[in-house]
Amino acid sequence: MGYDIEGKTVLVTGANRGIGKAIVEAVLAHGAKKVYAAVRSVESAEPLVAEHGERVTPVEIDLTKPETITAAAEAASDVQVVVNNAGVLKTSTALDADALENLAFEFEVNVYGLVRVAQAFAPVLKANGGGALVQLNSVASLMSFPPFTTYCASKAASYSVTQALRRLLEEQGTQVLSVHPGPIDTDMGDNAGFHDIAEPPSLVGEGIVAALAAGDFHLWPDSMAKQVGEAYRGFAENVVEAELAVG
């Protein structure tokens, strides 16, 4: 199963900058009919509207505020592809005094946010023929980096949820894609100290379009991600993506 983005209506969370902006640009370049730029402040999407005109419609989504997600699902009732890109990162080890506070915040956005988006938009995608749900996870979902322990834990949890959503949503014909970037040249990556090794966010945007068309479940868009993905390939194919009996 593959999914062609051309002519489709797409919603991207965290669309105003970084990877989110690159995803908006990629899907528009490949023929998406309309993009809902889902952001915490609709004013932040004005540059996208100025550049792309009526093909971009700002909509409010704050992953910590369930009511904004529900309202967006009602407003974007024609959406066929949902890309949940928005996320947060705290620099925190497991031994830091504020580790539990940071972990709770990252889970609120990176994990609970995903569940809220899936619950709100799954019926919309079903009503519009199935479509696709794309979740931005990370190489950090598979390996823990001590300075970012709490972030890695949240991404491991979001990846687990994404695997379950793949099984749950296939019954309604919704394709699910789990995206695992390494260091990407964004504000978040710069704040994490990755500026010397970061690669362009366009790799993620273009990669998503190609992975959806190919019907893939995993996407490893950049150099570090490809290295991790290659090492993980056997487990992914024989366990995560395999039809194993449970119970």
Lay out the secondary structure.
Layout: E1 9-13, H1 18-29, E2 34-39, H2 46-52, E3 56-60, H3 66-75, E4 81-84, H4 99-127, E5 132-136, H5 149-170, E6 175-179, H6 187-191, H7 202-214, E7 218-219, H8 223-240
Parallel strand pairs: 1-2, 1-4, 2-3, 4-5, 5-6, 6-7
Helix pairs in contact: 1-7, 3-4, 4-5
Short note summarizing the structure:
The protein is of the alpha/beta class and 247 residues long. It has helices spanning 18-29, 46-52, 66-75, 99-127, 149-170, 187-191, 202-214, 223-240, and strands spanning 9-13, 34-39, 56-60, 81-84, 132-136, 175-179, 218-219.
Summarize the structure in words.
With 247 residues, the chain is α/β, with parallel strands linked by helices. The chain has a domain of 166 residues: NAD(P)-binding Rossmann-like Domain (Rossmann fold), CATH 3.40.50.720. The protein is built from 8 helices and 7 strands. A 7-stranded parallel β-sheet has the order 3-2-1-4-5-6-7, sandwiched between helices. Strand 5, helix 5 and strand 6 form a beta-alpha-beta unit. Helix 1 crosses helix 7. The longest helix has 29 residues. The chain is globular. The mean pLDDT is 94.
Strand order, main sheet: write it out: 3-2-1-4-5-6-7
Rg from alpha-carbon coordinates: 17 Å
Distance between the termini: 27 Å
| Low confidence ranges | none
User: What does the overall shape look like?
Assistant: globular
Element pattern in H and E: EHEHEHEHEHEHHEH
Keywords: Oxidoreductase
InterPro entries: KR_dom, NAD(P)-bd_dom_sf, Sc_DH/Rdtase_CS, SDR_fam
Family: Belongs to the short-chain dehydrogenases/reductases (SDR) family.
Domain Ketoreductase: 8-187
